[in-house]
Amino acid sequence: MWKWRVAVMTGLGLLIALSAAGLLRTEASQPDVCDPDGKAANLDFVLKDMNGKNVSLSAYRGKVILLDFWATWCAPCRIEIPNFVELYKKYQSQGFVVLGVSVDDPLPKLKSFAKELKMNYPVLIGLDRDDVKDAFGPPPGYPTSFIIGRDGRICSQHTGFVPKEEFERKIKALL
């Protein structure tokens, strides 16, 4: 009987700790995907993509945007990017786009990395573009991703690794 009580108490303690840390989530406890009073995303920037073409962020207004600030040296970025490749492939036809902003990598390294990870979405050069980073925060760490709704509002911000399922749930709700 005593061992059973210890097991139950340990289990309850673990649930409380996970909940307090925000690691245990249920759909019922999730807030709306996009805050109606959310901040408008500043999409008034033109960046070069890794092929040298100008890309206007404002051209993506009206789409659901996952704007990801990342770097080749960032281990969580390396883990997340294949998930973004899958999500882009799956939802692109429904008005979803991933925009990857490489924050500090030289072009040769960036191209090699993008090829290795089979990045199928626009990869933009954020090197020396503190104006773009500052418009969104600046990012407190990497990766930092923003989900922007069709109306141009920032619906959520994530820093560090986030499971694909969490991004997908939010994206699907906005599409």
What would your notes on this structure say?
- With 175 residues, the chain is of the alpha/beta class.
- The chain folds into two domains: 1-30, no CATH class; 31-174, Glutaredoxin.
- The chain contains five helices and seven strands; from the N terminus they run H-E-E-E-H-E-H-E-H-E-E-H.
- Strands 5-4-3-6-7 form a five-stranded mixed β-sheet, covered by helices on one side. The chain has a two-stranded antiparallel sheet with strand order 1-2.
- The model is unreliable at 1-31 (pLDDT under 50).
Keywords:
single chain, 175 residues, Glutaredoxin, five-stranded mixed sheet, two-stranded antiparallel sheet, 5 helices, globular, disordered N terminus
Instruction: Describe the strand arrangement of the main beta sheet, using strand numbers.
Output: 5-4-3-6-7
Distance between the termini: 52 Å
In CATH, the architecture of the largest domain is 3-Layer(aba) Sandwich
Largest sheet: 5 strands, mixed
Strand content: 15-25%
Please state the overall shape, judged from the principal axes of the Cα atoms: globular
Average pLDDT level: 83
Number of helices: 5
Instruction: Estimate percent helicity.
Output: 25-40%
Radius of gyration: 19 Å
- Stated plainly, the CATH topology of the largest domain is called Glutaredoxin
Class derived from helix and strand content:
alpha/beta
Low-confidence stretches: 1-31
CATH class of the largest domain: Alpha Beta
What is the total tally of β strands? 7
Task: Note the run of SSEs as H and E.
Answer: HEEEHEHEHEEH
Number of domains: 2
Identify the CATH homologous superfamily of the largest domain.
Answer: Glutaredoxin
